[in-house]
Every structure is written in structure tokens, then in C-alpha cells.
Specification:
By secondary structure, this protein is mostly beta strands. Helices cover about 5% and strands about 40% of the residues.
């Protein structure tokens, strides 16, 4: 399915998977707000033709469902029993991200609010050939487009020279015209601070498995990602829809069995190219003042204003991009 134009339902920034160095700046006492500045690094390349993400080789977290499990009274005898591993005891449709709290980085991929199931198989009738055993499961996302947004997602390492993206997925529930299994593929040109307008929206084709390769020829949005990766690094994010959306596109559980990307991977960060003093920001009564023209986005990636003076509606986390190329994240009380 192709979708062109407009923000995805969940432009999003999460500090727990962006790990820049933090520098506190002293602000004169007459300023009403406090400014905290964080620099973003640039790249060094590591040539690599195929970047592979294999959930079967992921190490489950000790407190994740696969190991820690849950106690449930499924036979209703008044005594809860212990369930973990591949047993389907993790679902809670009233709180869909329950048991999906594994966050971290393995195999150079970052996962947020997911569930690692390294030995478990797909459900229902398999496709031919079957998708591989082992998966990482994304839960429906919550409250997208708000300050309380909670996203379940898998992010690729920073890459350049993107050529194709191969994915194998399956679903937790059966699929019909009234219940589809949506997921989205977005891209970021600033290491995940903001996400571009155009993105791929697709659906798992069958509960037993779905296999697809995205290329410039298959999707106009992917061609845009390819072109963006020619000059600068990009990050891809695979995530689910919000659980509050109406059927058939309501967010569902999505199992990722494998990812293969043809691209070159960014292997290290060099902070020397960014000078925090370039922005020389000042703030007074929630208004930013800069020596150069700036663009300001909120923590959800929404545009807030531009110019040498930008007034903000409330305190919070903001991303500031200067016309001289400097990029900073700020916090305003």
C-alpha cells in the first residue's frame, strides 16, 4: 500500500534511544526559564552490503515475558499458574503494551516497548517457505500525537546508500476485512529527532507470515528514502498503529521474524563537527532568541516556528535546527 504526504499518526522522539552527551549551560538569573542543550553527533561509515536483524539470535531480557513470565488463573480454580516462553499468556487488550517493555539495542538495531521471543514460531498456516522461527513482537502504540505517546517500534542503525529493505512478519491474531494488521516504515534524517512527512504504510498479508522487499520500484516513499540516504545518514523506524484507531486499521501486535537491509552502516559517531556555541540560544518567558535563523520542533516532531525569535506555547522538550547546520535539543521549564 502506498501512502503519500502528511505526517504519520505518530511523529515521535524518545530520549531513551537517543543517547547524546549532555552539557548544562548557565543562564542569567533574570531569565524565566532554564535551557539544557544536547549536541548531536555526525557519522563515520562502515561498508557493509547486507545489514541483518535476526530476532532468533536476540537475548531476551531477564524481566521480559519470555523469561520472567506472568501468573494467570486460566482454569479459574482460584490459583494462578506461571506461564512464560512461547505460551500465549502475554495479551492484555485493555492495556496492550503489558509484557512489551523490553527496550535496548542488539545487532545494531534498537527496540522500544517490544517483546523478544527467540524460539517461538508464527501462528496459523505457514507461507511457503515458512518465515523463520523466533521473532520480536511490537505491541499497538498508545496516545500517539500527544505528550503521553508510547510507541512500540524497531529502529535500524544509521545507514547511507540504501538500496532495499527485506522483511518477514506475521500476526498475533487472524486477519479479515474488519481487522487488518498495519505497520509503518518511516525515516529520519536527524538520527531520530524528527521524522519525515512521507512514509510506507503496509499490512501483514496473512497470520502465518508475510514476506516483502521494498525498493525504489515498489514504493515511491522508499525511493525518497533511498535518495535521502545518498548524501546523509538516515534511520528507519518500523512501528504499529495506535490502538485507539478505528478498525480495520486499529493497532495490532506485529511479529518481526527477520530484516535484511542493503545499505552501508554508520559505525561510529564524531561529535567534533557540532559546536554547541553556534546556536548561542537565549530564552525569556518561553521565547527563544538566536543569532541565526532557527526552526523549532516539539518532542513529537511537530513544527513550532522559525526565525531568530520563536515563542513557544509551553515548557517541555524542543528540537532546534539552525540555518548554519547546528542541531540541539533543549528543555524549557
Amino acid at each position: 500500500m502506498r501512502r503519500k504526504g502528511g505526517h504519520p499518526p505518530f511523529p515521535f522522539f524518545k530520549q531513551h534511544f537517543i543517547k547524546p552527551e549532555t552539557e548544562m549551560k548557565t543562564i542569567p538569573k533574570f531569565l524565566a526559564s532554564t535551557l539544557m542543550v544536547v549536541s548531536m553527533g555526525i557519522l563515520t561509515l562502515s561498508a557493509q552490503n547486507e545489514i541483518i536483524f535476526s530476532p532468533a539470535e536476540l537475548i531476551p531480557h531477564d524481566d521480559g515475558y519470555y523469561i520472567a513470565g506472568v501468573y494467570l488463573d486460566l482454569n479459574e480454580d482460584g490459583t494462578p499458574e506461571f506461564y512464560n516462553g512461547c505460551f500465549d499468556g502475554y495479551e492484555n487488550y485493555l492495556s496492550p503494551q503489558d509484557n512489551h517493555h523490553e527496550c535496548g539495542t542488539q545487532q545494531n538495531f534498537t527496540y522500544i516497548s517490544c517483546m523478544i521471543m527467540p524460539t517461538c514460531t508464527h501462528k496459523s498456516t505457514p507461507i511457503e517457505p515458512p518465515v523463520p522461527d523466533g521473532y520480536i513482537q511490537m505491541a499497538p502504540s498508545l496516545y500517539l500525537g500527544t505528550d503521553s505517546a508510547s510507541i512500540s517500534a524497531v529502529l535500524t542503525p544509521a545507514i547511507v546508500n540504501l538500496q532495499s529493505l527485506f522483511m518477514e512478519t506475521s500476526s498475533d491474531v487472524s486477519i479479515n476485512e474488519q481487522r487488518k494488521i498495519p505497520y509503518n516504515i518511516e525515516y529520519s534524517k536527524d538520527n531520530g529527532l524528527t521524522w519525515e512527512n512521507n512514509y510506507i504504510s503496509d499490512f501483514v498479508a496473512a497470520q502465518g507470515g508475510y514476506r516483502v522487499t521494498y525498493t525504489s520500484e515498489s514504493h515511491l516513499e522508499f525511493e525518497e528514502m533511498v535518495n535521502a540516504s545518498k548524501d546523509n545518514p538516515i534511520v528507519l523506524r518500523i512501528s504499529t498503529n495506535d490502538v485507539s484507531l478505528d478498525r480495520p486499521i486499529k493497532g495490532q501486535y506485529v511479529k518481526i521474524h527477520s530484516i535484511k537491509i542493503m545499505a552501508d552502516m554508520v559505525s561510529s559517531i564524531d561529535d567534533s563537527r557540532i559546536d554547541n556555541n553556534k546556536l548561542n540560544l537565549k530564552v525569556n518567558n518561553r521565547t527563544l532568541f538566536a543569532d541565526n535563523s532557527i526552526k523549532v520542533y516539539n518532542s513529537l516532531g511537530q513544527f513550532m516556528g522559525s526565525g531568530k525569535q520563536v515563542s513557544l506555547p509551553s515548557g517541555g522538550i524542543y528540537i532546534v535546527l539552525s540555518s548554519n547546520g547546528a542541531l540541539q535539543k533543549i528543555y524549557i521549564e
